[in-house]
Design brief:
327 residues, mainly alpha, 15 helices, 2 strands, elongated
Length: 327
């Protein structure tokens, strides 16, 4: 513990290297060598800072200490620069045909899944006389195949998103069409319904997971081509937000459309309509999603990361001896 009186001996007043008069009285004459050494240290630190800044290609001595007019530093939420960057990034994402194909594939997948929410319990109650327990348990056949997601992901990594998604659309289209024949109150039709729902669940998982992976590669490639617009963090969360918007539209459309068709036409017509809607996703997938041989590898950006960091945060970061960055 340092006493207050002892600490006051080292109180600095009025600037660097100037000791208070009270401390002079108690501690005696000032050591001029110590004061001179401190002043030289301050000048040396400032000189080093100027030399480091001069190494930057964009450094301008007349603007030292001020943000450059052509480098927007303030990107806080609500700023005009951040809004312009958000709109430009969104427009660029929506111009990508591969990204739109992934969004449409997700839209079709979630529309089919949620369509069963409104009509499947009503159908099993009317066809088999099942109550709420049976109407809820029938969804196990549709959702349990989702546990095979890691296997589907491994297949997509090995074979490519295009082949797996195409197979998923084909399987789902076929099983949705076959579901139209399951409607008699017999054990055979009950088993057939559960089996077709399980295969449909497998097909929908094959439709969704590879599209998510393909969307990552698309956004990564766009970040490589436009690093100043996408920034050091990329636009992955923004892309997934747009994808979630497409999924939300499917969740609204699926139950409403299927419920309308079931009430007006019946189970068979509703299944045929869902099969046709599922088949509509094949064309965008085949034409707009590139095969693995044409997909460029994600490489490190060939740009000055230091300038990008200064552009987006206004802070200069220098590497330390351990390889990390410090402000």
């Amino acid at each position: 513990m340092i006493e207050k009186q002892s600490a006051q001996k080292w109180v600095v007043e009025g600037g660097y290297g100037t000791f208070s008069r009270e401390s002079n009285r108690e501690s005696g004459p000032i050591d001029r060598d110590i004061v001179s050494t401190q002043e030289e240290g301050v000048v040396e630190n400032r000189t080093t800072a100027l030399q480091d800044a001069a190494k930057d290609d964009t450094f301008n001595p007349s603007n030292f200490g001020k943000p450059a007019p052509d480098q927007p530093i303030d990107h806080r939420a609500g700023s005009s620069e951040g809004l312009v960057r958000f709109l430009k990034t969104t427009a660029m994402l929506l111009k990508s045909r591969g990204f739109l194909a992934a969004m449409y594939g997700g839209f079709v997948q979630i529309t089919i899944i949620t369509a069963f929410d409104s009509i499947l319990p009503l159908f099993v109650h009317k066809a088999f006389g099942w109550g709420s327990s049976g109407g809820g348990s029938i969804f196990l056949a549709l959702t349990i195949p989702s546990l095979a997601g890691p296997v589907v992901g491994a297949m997509s990594d090995r074979l490519g998103a295009r082949a797996v998604v195409l197979a998923g659309f084909a399987i789902s289209t076929l099983t949705l069409a076959l579901l139209s024949v399951a409607g008699q109150d017999s054990i055979q039709h009950k088993i057939l319904l559960c089996a077709l729902l399980a295969v449909t669940g497998v097909g929908t998982i094959m439709m969704l997971l590879p599209l998510l992976a393909d969307m990552y590669f698309i956004v990564s490639q766009m970040g490589e081509e436009h690093p100043l617009l996408f920034g050091p963090g990329g636009a992955f969360a923004q892309a997934y937000g747009l994808f979630n918007c497409a999924m939300a539209l499917g969740m609204m459309l699926g139950p409403a459309l299927a419920g309308f068709l079931y009430d007006s036409k019946g189970w068979k017509e509703a299944m045929w309509a869902m099969a046709a809607f599922c088949a509509s996703g094949v064309v965008p997938v085949v034409r707009l999603i590139a095969p693995p041989s044409l997909k460029p590898a994600v490489q490190q950006r060939d740009i000055n990361h230091k300038q990008i960091q200064i552009l987006f945060t206004g802070k200069r970061r220098e590497p330390t001896a351990h390889g990390s960055a410090e402000e």
